[in-house]
């Protein structure tokens, strides 16, 4: 019989101390806890239920047939970086040199991680408006810096320049950067051009980096996305990717666009982490950006219809939620009977109504008392989930 090896007892505590300071993803952890419930409809993960467009898949298949099986340039193929550069120019009016200012990463997650590790030193502070994607917090901690959570729930989930100024005055010069994710996960709230212009003035005056995670920029409803990189290109680290816009989460293609000096440091970290991205995935991403700009438009129409359905159902239950103007999430205030105990509500909803959502507190202090649902799910599953939740809420 094979014996499963166990770590030597004297080594059991000899791991990265910073890693010990953080817990696992609250989103994934809760999703795993409820996955075994028979018949549950899960609206937990931000994963498009649609398939990658056929022409994108064919480009990747052709890459494999062409024996494109060797290492690409560490920053990604120059063809893809040129496609990214052109896409940013036509979609946002941004100019980035594909040779020196663009890095192809293994998903936007790696882009965020490489950027933090390239930027931060022990003692630095990073402001993160909350609620926010839970991944950001542990990555800052692992990089040795301190997270400053800035609760935006009292301001309709939009960071105001006044609140940012007050936080900077309180935290002092150790603040090196601010992270902005918009349209936002988990709220779906998009910042207007006026919002971004006001924040840019504060960021520039305080000499901060801004990490702009704009992964949902193609999924906006009735508004136009305005990148802060238009105003602060010299201090913005722009992060984006193909996961959400083209239903390519499993392909793991993201990118960083930043001034050449920072991009050089981020490239070094990126290369230590992953060497280079997958060639077939890069071929598919290039096809998506060169010939698939209409693909997100078609997906956006589907998501907007689903958003309207979910919002109507939630309002019909007497519950509140900000109208999402981007992404594909409904961030719902839990029933008053639960106070702010979003974990208990999410647990009861899963066990008693067989509907899965993520407790809002997983997204930081600003999410307490809310629950997040992803409407990147089939129309059928959304209807079943909303019907079950309606019945559950009525019985409270």
TrEMBL record:
Belongs to the class-I pyridoxal-phosphate-dependent aminotransferase family. Its EC number is 2.6.1.-. One of its GO terms (biological process) is amino acid metabolic process. GO terms for molecular function: pyridoxal phosphate binding; transaminase activity. The keyword Chloroplast does not apply. InterPro entries: Aminotransferase_I/II_large, AspAT/PAT-like, NHTrfase_class1_PyrdxlP-BS, PyrdxlP-dep_Trfase, PyrdxlP-dep_Trfase_major, PyrdxlP-dep_Trfase_small. This is Aminotransferase. It comes from the Bacteria. PANTHER family: AMINOTRANSFERASE, ASPARTATE AMINOTRANSFERASE. Its cofactor is pyridoxal 5'-phosphate. Residues 40-388 form the Aminotransferase class I/classII large domain. Pfam families: Aminotran_1_2.
């Amino acid at each position: 019989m094979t014996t499963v090896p166990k770590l030597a007892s004297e080594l059991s505590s000899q791991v990265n101390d910073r890693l010990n300071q953080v817990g696992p993803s609250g989103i994934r952890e809760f999703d795993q806890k409820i996955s075994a419930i028979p018949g549950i409809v899960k609206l937990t993960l931000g994963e498009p239920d649609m398939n990658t467009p056929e022409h994108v898949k064919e480009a990747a298949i052709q890459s494999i047939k062409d024996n494109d099986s060797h290492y690409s340039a560490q920053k990604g193929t120059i063809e893809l970086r040129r496609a990214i550069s052109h896409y940013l120019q036509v979609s946002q009016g941004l100019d980035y040199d594909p040779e020196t200012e663009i890095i192809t990463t293994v998903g936007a997650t790696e882009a965020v991680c490489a950027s933090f590790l390239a930027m931060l030193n022990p003692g630095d502070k990073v402001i993160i408006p909350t609620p926010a994607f839970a991944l950001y917090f542990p990555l800052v901690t692992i990089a040795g810096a301190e997270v400053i959570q800035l609760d935006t729930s009292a301001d309709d989930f939009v960071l105001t320049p006044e609140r940012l100024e007050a936080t900077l005055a309180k935290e002092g010069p150790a603040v090196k950067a601010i992270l902005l994710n918009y349209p936002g996960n988990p709220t779906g709230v998009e910042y207007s051009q006026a919002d971004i212009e006001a924040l840019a003035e504060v960021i520039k005056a305080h000499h901060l980096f801004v990490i702009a995670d704009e992964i949902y920029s193609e999924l906006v409803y009735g508004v136009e996305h305005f990148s802060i990189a238009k105003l602060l290109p010299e201090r913005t680290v722009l992060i984006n990717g193909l996961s959400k816009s083209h239903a390519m989460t499993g392909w793991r293609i993201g990118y960083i666009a930043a001034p050449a000096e920072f991009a050089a440091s981020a490239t070094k970290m990126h290369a230590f982490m992953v060497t280079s991205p997958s060639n077939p995935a890069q071929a598919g991403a290039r096809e998506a950006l060169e010939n698939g700009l209409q693909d997100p438009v078609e997906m956006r129409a589907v998501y907007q219809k689903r958003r309207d359905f979910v919002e109507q159902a939630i309002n019909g239950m007497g519950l509140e939620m900000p109208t999402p103007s981007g992404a594909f999430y409904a961030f719902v205030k839990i029933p008053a009977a639960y106070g702010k105990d979003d974990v208990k509500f999410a647990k009861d909803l899963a066990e008693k109504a067989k509907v899965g959502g993520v407790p809002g507190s997983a997204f930081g202090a600003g999410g307490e008392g809310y629950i997040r649902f992803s409407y990147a799910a089939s129309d059928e599953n959304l209807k079943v989930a909303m019907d079950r939740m309606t019945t559950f809420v009525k019985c409270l």
